[in-house]
Specification:
Layout (H helix, E strand, L loop, with lengths): L4 E6 L27 E2 L8 E7 L2 H8 L7 E8 L4 H9 L2 E2 L2 E2 L4 E5 L20 E8 L6 H8 L4 E12 L2 E4 L8 E3 L2 H11 L1
Parallel strand pairs: 3-9
Antiparallel strand pairs: 1-3, 1-11, 2-3, 4-8, 4-9, 5-6, 7-8, 9-10
């Protein structure tokens, strides 16, 4: 019996869908042998991290629709050495593609978080420092974190979604899940999610 909802650690370089029309890139099908699952939201090809998938349409809608403004937490490795003053615009909302983002929670992660190695690794340049930021967003526009960080002068080099708060008492996160692996939700997690959708 297949689970209705799973949590997956999407690796870098994997399409957030089960088929590739060009048949040249890795897809979710290469990692998840469960039929009729649909991603809750998206992660770009070059982004990594937490992805929820479900076969319950109402739950997918409830978790993905912008109206519900569910917080999602990202770790972004950025180019440069941001100071607090440079991060303040992200907390107030920045203009990207004629759209002002909702205010985000942002903090510098120091020390840098321990994350799995990426294949291929980001380009290393001895003369350009990097830093890690934690951003909590309540919206998910296309490539939003990358565009936000670039707008304030700190381009994103690596992006990992690490958590999704689905209700006031339930936050799903990667915990010890390695890239390319998935797990079924626990019974308690399923009960809480079902309450959201029905």
């Amino acid at each position: 019996m297949f689970p209705d909802t799973i949590l997956f650690y999407k690796p870098y370089g994997v399409l957030c869908q089960f088929t590739d029309p060009d048949q040249r890139r890795s897809t979710l099908k290469d990692f998840i042998p469960i039929p009729d699952l649909y991603p809750v939201g998206r992660l770009d090809f070059d982004s990594e991290g937490l992805l929820l998938l479900t076969r319950q349409g109402r739950l997918q809608h409830r978790l993905a629709h912008p109206r519900f403004a569910q917080p999602r937490t990202y770790w972004a490795q950025v180019e440069g050495s941001p100071q607090e003053s440079g991060l303040q615009p992200l907390r107030e909302g920045v203009l990207i593609q004629n759209y002002r983002t909702r205010p985000a929670q942002v903090r510098l992660l120091d020390p840098a978080p321990e994350v799995p190695p990426r294949d291929p690794p980001i380009r290393y340049r001895k003369t350009v420092p990097t830093a890690w930021l934690e951003l909590v967003l309540t919206e998910g526009k296309n490539r939003q974190v990358r565009r936000m960080s670039a707008a304030v002068g700190f381009p994103t080099l690596r992006l990992i979604r690490v958590a999704h708060r689905v209700s006031s008492d339930l936050e799903l996160n990667l915990e010890e899940l390695p890239p390319g692996e998935w797990r079924a939700l626990t019974e308690q997690e399923n009960v809480q999610l079902t309450r959201l959708a029905f």
